[in-house]
Design goal:
Elements lengths: L2 E11 L5 E11 L3 E5 L6 H8 L7 E6 L2 E2 L4 H6 L1 E4 L11 H11 L6 H10 L15 H13 L5 E5 L7 H16 L3 E5 L3 H7 L2 E6 L2 E7 H8 L2 E7 L16 E2 L5 E6 L8 H10 L4 E8 L2 H10 L4
Parallel strand pairs: 3-8, 3-9, 6-7, 7-8
Antiparallel strand pairs: 1-2, 1-4, 4-5, 9-10, 11-13, 11-14, 12-13
């Protein structure tokens, strides 16, 4: 794989001494989707703003496609598309002109077919003659996405792109992301909808208090840090877990009709066979058995809180 975005020891400090980024280093491969997760104020937007040239770094280097973001700003920025959190659009401009102007800003010639394709994909074609001020919040978010795609970027940053928007736009957005990935576009997204990151990301990065805590293949991360649980459903509810089962550290669900057992998939023995034998010895009748794995959200919360997954 080819590295398209390289970040080395990136730092951002402010006059009051606050460190928004603390030596972030990261390589992102061409065509991958990286989900950047972290609580509010963790440094996600500062990192994106710095890479995109909106914020000047205190120290460190960033290259995009081999172009340094400071010494070769125009070449680097031309490769980047950004969908910001905040909606900042000229209210009296038409949708069509807004998107076309964005393409021209990066030195690309007029391409009406390309603009039409983007507007149709984002369900904006019928609104192309409308002024921005006439659009709903969700439609304005679609225009931001269209602007970011207008100059055909090779790296696309999506900073909370679906926060507060309708389900239809969210679905459209992820379909477009899938198509862009197929075309070799690299995508870095931040999101509070962690289930979406879990569904589409190749790798997951966790940033907290300006530090990149880890970057890991999503499936590997879940395998290494996620716990697995087996839920033993009982034919008849019970009031309490029998003393004979205390060794298994079980929990009883709210209805009293299921025992939950947590185990390590990497251990030599899971203890499941012994558990089921002991359940039967305790006189409990099984109705069903199900397994589940910790979600990416649970893993993320544990990482940020510093607790074991």
């Amino acid at each position: 794989m080819t590295t398209i975005l390289s970040i080395r020891d990136l730092r951002k400090s402010y006059a009051d001494g606050f460190e928004a980024l603390k030596g972030v280093s990261l390589d992102i491969e061409q065509g991958e989707i990286l989900a950047l997760l972290g609580p509010n104020g963790a440094g996600k937007t500062t990192l994106i703003s710095t890479v995109c040239g909106i914020t000047t770094p205190t120290s460190g280097t960033v290259t995009v496609g081999g172009h340094d973001i400071q010494t070769e700003f125009r070449a680097a920025r031309r490769m980047i598309g950004l969908v910001p959190q905040e909606i900042a659009l000229e209210p009296f401009e038409k949708v069509w002109n807004t998107v076309r102007f964005s393409r021209g800003l990066f030195g690309y010639g007029s391409d009406n077919a390309r603009i039409e394709e983007i507007l149709r994909k984002l369900s904006l074609w019928d609104k192309r003659k409308n002024a921005i001020k006439e659009l709903s919040g969700g439609m304005k978010r679609r225009v931001l996405i269209a602007k970011a795609l207008a100059h055909e970027p090779r790296v696309l940053f999506l900073d909370e792109p679906t926060a507060g928007v309708d389900v239809e736009l969210r679905k459209d957005m992820w379909e477009i992301v899938a198509e862009l990935k197929k075309a070799g576009v690299t995508i870095i997204l931040t999101t509070h909808y962690i289930e979406e990151a879990e569904a589409i990301a190749d790798r997951v990065g966790v940033i907290d208090k300006g530090e990149l805590r880890l970057v890991q293949d999503k499936n590997t991360l879940m395998a290494q840090m996620g716990k697995k649980q087996i839920e033993v459903m009982l034919a008849d509810p019970i009031q309490a877990i029998p003393d004979s089962l205390a060794v298994h550290n079980l929990t009883l669900n709210g209805n009293g009709d299921a025992l939950v057992y947590t185990y390590d998939t990497h251990a030599d023995r899971t203890g499941i066979t012994t558990l089921l034998n002991d359940v039967a010895q305790a006189g409990l009748v099984l109705r069903d058995v199900q397994t589940r794995q910790s979600s990416l959200e649970e893993i993320f919360v544990n990482l940020v809180s510093g607790e074991p997954a």
